[in-house]
């Protein structure tokens, strides 16, 4: 659909075949023991309904890709910063030729036409009626209803692969993943009243108390983190911002925001839009804040950096991971993907099957290997509660992915403290990556037993770092004050983009995947947040449960908040 390549040879017009099913040995490939809570089965899916099924083909050398990622991201590696080209990444993730041959034969036997969804050829799409899909994967696609919203979706509780595809197809989607209604998948943003229309500050005061006296505005963030107003000069560098349908960013409101808070900038400073899955940044859609926030705190902080809004539309969207996957595949298909990508959306980890989550996480490893810093808002639900109603905490995707940098939230200033809503914790899906061992072991040794039974502390811990999340002033017909890690991630993305500009001027490669550098040495350029904590009240919690920020890394603010001047010094810039 998006990228074409030699593997478009997958598009086949089949020959008629004798029923291939007679001789087929099926083996159950994925299953869910029960209908997930919140959903109810309505009945068999109508046999003629067309399903757009995605097939993830086994990649040639996925472990090799991860090794290659660390070789370019670990500051002690001889090839640190020597990022891979598109072709080099694809040489690891493209399916092997016997996989291609086998899958092609299966398509032909079944008279199917497939489309390649990724430049590497590891994702295919086939449109088939439910009746045929049931035969192909020995399953019964069923109509399920989401009880709270009434939304209907076709899924199954188990499916099988024919013998010939076993070992060649990693998963078929959508099958056992149950989509979460989209409104809940955005990192929740809550509004705290309306800010008075500010009078234009002439130049950013460098003193935090006065810069932050009217709320978190660009001058406040610049003063807190010593971000310079100096424009970026390397026009070929890009900062990507992810947006999902409904979260349109309004050009006129950005202009008002810049006139008000960046009088030193050209108020016509703009951003580009790349639509994915039919997305278009229509201006007649009312604001739901997220898009305005993400654009105003990138264009408005990363002075003169090329900001591109990757805007995902409604096609193929039912609240599942498809938009995340499609965006990653679009970026991986580019010769030069954006050097920084910030996304303020996510899911509760256990809402999605690991098989699918891991495919998206692995795509972020590919982007890291290409030199992209992939940043995610940690989430706004504190340590969060397990959806099964137990007293366990719950991690969030994609912050649980070891190949992204997760950004938690702070509040207040002088000093900043942990924001009460900041998500953080430990993954049940991913073990702790080696780069986190020292920092996280130190936290666990000092944290005491208060939460020990509620966390799986062997998992990937998040967030990695933090930035302001409270009192964020955004223009959306009025000046509103918002809160959420949805602000923290764009703020950090702006800082990384400005660092990349300085690096490029010095003839050096961009920051890329931050974590191996961050946990080894980068943390020294961050201000440790040691007070405040996140809060949650899960069923059975009396009273509200608090996770405190501590000295050193903690699962609320990570290593703390960035200092641009210290980052420059650490990077010898
Ligand atoms: C194969 O597909 C073509 C095009 O959709 C259709 O005309 C033909 O009848 C199909 N053949 C069989 C055996 O299903
Ligand atoms: C699908 O449903 C039919 C009718 O209820 C049943 O006979 C069949 O075993 C089911 N197939 C699978 C794979 O569950
Ligand atoms: C804060 O608001 C006051 C009153 O509107 C104004 O005089 C001052 O310049 C503002 N300060 C900043 C940093 O925006
Ligand atoms: C920014 O770009 C959009 C889309 O091209 C355009 O409609 C808008 O007028 C531009 N804004 C400014 C301030 O130039
Ligand atoms: C910014 O980057 C996008 C994507 O590469 C490109 O289409 C656009 O022209 C660039 N904008 C500017 C002002 O250079
Ligand atoms: C705890 O995390 C590990 C990964 O570190 C995982 O293998 C294990 O299944 C998790 N335990 C539970 C109960 O989810
Ligand atoms: C967190 O800090 C508060 C205030 O200092 C304290 O009362 C509480 O016991 C701490 N909670 C934990 C789990 O350490």
From TrEMBL:
EC numbers for this chain: 3.4.14.10
Record-linked Pfam families: Peptidase_S8 (PF00082), Pro-kuma_activ (PF09286)
SUPFAM superfamilies per the UniProt record, alphabetical: Protease propeptides/inhibitors (SSF54897), Subtilisin-like (SSF52743)
GO MF annotation list: metal ion binding; serine-type endopeptidase activity; tripeptidyl-peptidase activity
Cofactor note: Binds 1 Ca(2+) ion per subunit.
One GO process term, biological-process aspect: proteolysis
Subcellular location field: Secreted, Extracellular space
Keywords attached to this entry: Calcium, Hydrolase, Metal-binding, Protease, Serine protease, Signal, Zymogen
Binding positions (Ca(2+)): 528-529, 552, 554
Start and end residues of each Peptidase S53 domain: 215-573
Reaction equation(s) it catalyzes: Release of an N-terminal tripeptide from a polypeptide
Cofactor: Ca(2+)
Residues forming the catalytic site: 290 (charge relay system), 294 (charge relay system), 486 (charge relay system)
EC class: hydrolase
Residues in the signal sequence: 1-17
Role, per record: Secreted tripeptidyl-peptidase which degrades proteins at acidic pHs and is involved in virulence.
Name used for this protein in its record: tripeptidyl-peptidase II
Annotated organism of origin: Trametes pubescens
